[in-house]
TrEMBL record:
Annotated organism of origin: Candidatus Fimisoma avicola
Domain Methyltransferase type: from-to ranges: 55-153
Keyword Cell membrane (UniProt): no
SUPFAM superfamilies registered for this protein in UniProt: S-adenosyl-L-methionine-dependent methyltransferases
MF-aspect GO terms: methyltransferase activity
InterPro entries (UniProt xref): Methyltransf_12, SAM-dependent_MTases_sf
Keyword match NAD: no
Domain of life from the UniProt record: Bacteria
Protein name (database record): Class I SAM-dependent methyltransferase
Alphabetical GO biological process terms: methylation
Keyword annotations of the record: Methyltransferase, Transferase
Residue stretches in coiled coil: none
């Protein structure tokens, strides 16, 4: 059982962002637009729906379960924060009853899943931007290790649309969200301290290079949560996030396939 506690307790910082509107598209609708690309790719896998397996890394309160449950037969979810894992478990039961998809929530990290356990799909939604540089690279490799050949990695993260990476420390100051731009060195310190929420705005090139070293090939990229949803732009502040879809090009012959 993990003792980690997510710095954005009760999701106040997240809620402050989600409540914003971008060019007539709500935060949720903008995300739904890019996630439809992922759903189509998952549905197009040769493995039949009831045999497809998905690993949700850093599932939070289980917000993405409902997006994919009708397109896979099993979801294993990881969440290191105990309170959030408990909420995800409750959400999983509700989704499971509605869809028939088996959903298991583990209070732990990706290290809780053996390397020889392979999934058709690995999902990580808005996790990597909160990790230190070394930990982010390790996570991408670990997720790739748990994909079968031809499997899909679905990744969303904050996005530096002008290619210039920026680092922030975010906290809840009374009734408002406080976001302070910091140096890369201070970002690593904030990550280690675990009090405020570290946020890294990733350049597209950084993510794709991490993926390439982990035998992952980019097949789809979409900026979202901005006025230019689906398009690259050099505007500093929009869009805020990016969606990546990768396919695993190489596999390990020693495979224990989940749910087979």
């Amino acid at each position: 059982m993990s003792e980690y506690q997510y710095p954005d307790k009760d999701d106040k910082l997240t809620a402050a962002l989600i409540n914003n509107e971008y060019d007539g598209l709500s935060w949720q609708k903008s995300e739904e637009k890019v996630m439809s690309v992922a759903v189509a790719a998952v549905s197009g896998l040769s493995t039949g729906r009831h045999h497809r397996t998905l690993l949700d890394v850093g599932c939070g309160i289980g917000r993405m379960f409902g997006v994919f449950a009708e397109h896979v037969g099993r979801i294993d979810a990881l969440e290191p924060d105990r309170d959030r894992a408990d909420k995800a478990h409750s959400q999983g039961r509700r989704i499971e009853e509605r869809t028939g998809t088996k959903i298991s929530v583990i209070n732990g990290t990706i290290g809780s899943i053996a390397k020889d356990t392979k999934y058709d799909v690995v999902l990580s939604s808005h996790v990597i931007q909160h990790l230190g540089s070394r930990q982010a690279e390790e996570l991408v490799r670990a997720m790739s290790d748990r994909l079968c050949t031809g499997g899909l990695l679905i990744l969303t993260t904050t996005y530096a649309c002008d290619g210039q990476e920026r680092f922030y420390s975010e906290s809840w100051d009374g009734k408002v969200r406080k976001s302070v731009r910091i140096t890369p060195e201070d970002f690593e310190r904030v990550y280690r301290d675990g009090t405020d929420l570290p946020v890294r705005m990733f350049a597209e090139e950084t993510i794709t290079k991490m993926a390439e070293t982990a035998s992952l090939r980019l097949v789809a990229f979409r900026p979202f949560h901005g006025k230019t949803d689906g398009q690259r732009t050099e505007h500093e502040h929009q869009p805020r996030d990016a969606f990546y879809l990768f396919v695993k090009e190489q596999g390990n012959k020693s495979v224990k396939e989940v749910g087979r």
